[in-house]
Structure formats: C-alpha cells, structure tokens
Amino acid sequence: MSRTVLITGNSSGLGKGLTEAYLEKGFEVYGMSRRGYASSKHKLNDIRCDLTDYESVPLALETLLMGISHLDVAILNAGILGKMQDMADTSLEEIRRVMEANVWSNKVLLDWLLKSGIRIDQIVLISSGAAVNGNRGWGAYALSKATLNMLTQLYAHEFPHSHLVALAPGLVDTAMQDVLCDPVQVDDGQFPSVKKLRAARGTENMPSATVAGQMIADLIPSLKQLPSGSFTDVRTLMQGQ
Length: 241
Description:
- The protein is an alpha/beta fold.
- It has a single domain (about 5-175, about 205-225), classed as Rossmann fold, CATH 3.40.50.720.
- It contains 9 helices and 7 strands, in the order βαββαβαβααβαααβα.
- The protein has helices at about 15-25, 55-65, 90-115, 130-135, 140-155, 175-180, 195-200, 210-220, 235-240, and strands at about 5-10, 30-35, 45-50, 70-75, 120-125, 165-170, 230-235.
- It has a 7-stranded parallel β-sheet with strand order 3-2-1-4-5-6-7, sandwiched between helices.
- β1 (about 5-10), α1 and β2 (about 30-35) form a beta-alpha-beta unit.
- α1 (about 15-25) packs across α8 and α3 runs parallel beside α5 (about 140-155).
- The model has no long low-confidence stretch (mean pLDDT about 95).
- GO terms for molecular function: oxidoreductase activity, acting on NAD(P)H, oxygen as acceptor.
C-alpha cells in the first residue's frame, strides 16, 4: 500500500524541503500552495490554493484528495512572518493578517479533515520557538504560533484516532531569513534576538530547507511518543537522541 502525506505551503521553504524528502521516501505526496510545486514526479499531486481564501479551501481539498481514504501524515506548514516591529507599533490589521495565514487557515483545514472521513495517522502543525520565547519584535508572528500551539492541543481532543503535534522546526535557511538577516529591513540593535539568526546563517546550526526537510521527515514517526496535542521543538528532540 502506498504511503501518503499532505503538505501545505509546499512550493518553497521548509514545505518544499519536506515535499522533496517524502518523495525520496517513496510517499505519494499531496501538496497545497499558492504558487504550486513545480515538478513532474509521478507521485506528486499538487493543487494551487490561497489558504487564506477560506471559501476555496474545501473545494481544493475535495479535488486534491478525491478518493483518498487514508493519510499517513498531514503537515500543516504554510505560514507568514509578518512585520518585525514593536507591539505598540503593530496594528490590529497586521495581527489579523498574520493570524489568518498562520492560525485560521489551519482551522479551516482541520475542520475539513475532521469531517472528511479520511483516516489520518499523524497531523503535524509547524509552529516556532517564537511561540514561547516572547522576544521583542516578533509580535504578530509569536502570537499566531502560540495560538497555533493551543489550537493543536484543543483539536487533539476531537481527532481521537489521529496523533497531533505542534512542532517548532528550529532554524531553517529560508526566504524568511532573507528578511530577518537583512540589516536594512531589521535592526538587530532594536531586535537583538535576530543576532543569533545572523550568526547561525551559513553554518550547520541553520540547515537548508532540503536538509531540514529530510531531518524532520525522519523525526516525525517518533513524535507519536509524545502526548497528542503537545508542542515540541526539533532541537529538543535532537538533543535527546
């Protein structure tokens, strides 16, 4: 029987790295993203969808997963950074924009999956260390990821036959780092937490999306050892190995 995985936000960054990793493992991959994953690999099934267009998400899922009765893994990865700025300078509109992409789109996905009748062994929601660190400047993003952690915990009660985890992937060299590591866009004097990111970029402490995708894909089966609804960090898991 073919192993199956659903990955959102799979056209770039970590989502693309995860797609590559699961294709290499021989999985049938079902991807959702705004731009689409450019590949002719026969085990990749892809659909373009803006996940913040909530009315279009159910139809996209129905089209993508038509005839599917079982998913080994669903990885809800899509998300945005938002502006690095002090909370006092962050408008409610900016917070709403980030929450729509990072939280409420995932609620729409989870609601559809819950009602679909598809048996799902594992659901992994990609969170962030920002959810618990509370560093200056991460405002809307940190709020969204903290909310995502609680969303995972709450939905764990409603998916009794699936195992849910919110997973912080650690430092990954993606387009997000292009913004965070640019001194013109982000002042590390005002937001000192980005100094750690800039020091890590280009080292093994910040792997490429391809390397991180392979590492996370290898780790995901072991997440079942945690209570469903948990939040964990890849770095904590790696230290325990």
